[in-house]
Amino acid sequence: MRYSAFSLLRNTLSHHKNWPQLWGSPDPQPEYDVIIIGGGGHGLATAYYLASQHGINNVAVLEKAWIGGGNTGRNTTIVRSNYLWDESAKLYETALKLWENLSQELNYNVMFSQRGVMNLCHNVHDVRETKRRVNANRLNGIDSEFLDAQQVKEFCPAIDLRGGGRYPVMGASLQRRGGTARHDAVAWGYARGAAKRGVHIIQNCPVTGFDIEGGAIKGVQTAKGPIKAKRVGMVVAGHSSVLANMAGFKLPLHCRPLQALVSEPVKPAIDCVVMSNAVHAYISQSDKGELVIGAGTDAYCSYGQRGSMHNTEGTLAAICEMFPQFRRMKMLRAWGGIVDTCPDASPIIGKTPVEGLYINCGWGTGGFKATPGSGWVFADTIANERPHALAEPFALSRFSSGYLIGEHGAAGVAH
Ligand SMILES: Cc1cc2nc3c(=O)[nH]c(=O)nc-3n(C[C@H](O)[C@H](O)[C@H](O)COP(=O)(O)OP(=O)(O)OC[C@H]3O[C@@H](n4cnc5c(N)ncnc54)[C@H](O)[C@@H]3O)c2cc1C
């Protein structure tokens, strides 16, 4: 859609009244070729690529509440691909390459900013482990470099290398192509692109059950009535076990709240992303000027999408050790999202025990960065009714075969 300067001015002054709708609010049809459950970034990206890459346009995305209102709109938007094992590196790097052209592809500014992501080392073990990861990344063609302490300071002058005296900074890995993106713009951009290609985006439509006959999916039950489809993709992050239970199978997932918080906005103070597994916190600065801060998951399973004082206290103590000058900043708000973590900290993508029912979940604390790649491989998997080559190692069956892909180190501090 093109806007002249005049139409931009008119829309600015119209108090939203004349703004064009980016996607409609259709009533559900009785039947679709494919149903995607979950209108987060991954579900919307899947619908978009089904339509744009595979010519499957008779698709509905069924969202329980509003699109992007789950983890997609709650995350701290760190994007990188420096995972350890070949399988993950290929998947996350595919996603990163798609990120690099996403605003152009969608003709929608997702504000992808390749400002560089540093993972700090605070002890000898960290240094060894980080160098191993840097080497593994480079063997997979991923940009990754090791910085010594002085180079860390040059890249991020705001950091205090003494780490509060407790955890001095001894070096870091740096992925320069990593960075951040605008989370809700990603959901909106994919939604607009999918809707333009005929996909129905149906909000306030929770799926409440599955119609399964002879072991095969026939459709879903929803708050807006039954809807038929022979292919259904389930992309509901922290609610994956709940839906799997409805379909009669179990998933090896723990669902825990992951929290984040933002400060009052200030002038540009830090122009990269800094993460530290050892002090257990990470930080970047949004375009509005807020410091965006996060850390690990709560230790208990819950569906409460809230922040909590004990978590905030621990995270901020760690941030103050790395950046003492932020001690006097006020925090504006905290929140939580429910993340679905697998025992090996890698996702599940592919078939389920129910024929025609596909699953994409288990991205845990780090799935935002994978959004375009996840949608790309999941759309291909559903369209061709067999796992995409990049998705194959991430099948649910790995929990019985034992071929786990341990990425706890890459997930590290939650992100
Ligand atoms: C605080 C926090 C910080 C994070 N930071 C990062 C980060 O910096 N980098 C990173 O890569 N990742 C990060 N993550 C993880 C990332 O947000 C998720 O892995 C990713 O957004 C998952 O996307 P999704 O589309 O699968 O899930 P979601 O966005 O959660 O979408 C799932 C959707 O399914 C819907 N749904 C659920 N049940 C039903 C039902 N019965 N019927 C219909 N719809 C249903 C939900 O309403 C939701 O909208 C963070 C997460 C949190 C919570």
Task: Describe the structure in your own words.
Helix 2 runs parallel beside helix 7 (about 185-195), helix 2 crosses helix 10 and helix 3 (about 85-100) packs across helix 10. The protein is α/β, with parallel strands linked by helices and about 425 residues long. A hairpin with a 4-residue loop joins strand 14 and strand 15. The strands form 4 sheets. An 8-stranded mixed beta sheet has the order 5-6-4-14-15-16-13-17. Strands 8-2-1-12-19-18 form a 6-stranded mixed beta sheet. It has helices spanning about 5-15, 40-55, 85-100, 100-105, 125-140, 150-155, 185-195, 240-245, 310-320, 370-385, 400, 410; strands at about 35, 60, 80, 115-120, 145-150, 170-175, 180, 200, 205-215, 215-220, 225-230, 230-235, 255-265, 275, 280-285, 290-295, 330-340, 350, 355-360. The two termini are about 35 Å apart. The protein has a domain at about 30-75 and about 185-255 and about 345-410: 3-Layer(bba) Sandwich (FAD/NAD(P)-binding domain). It has 12 helices and 19 strands.
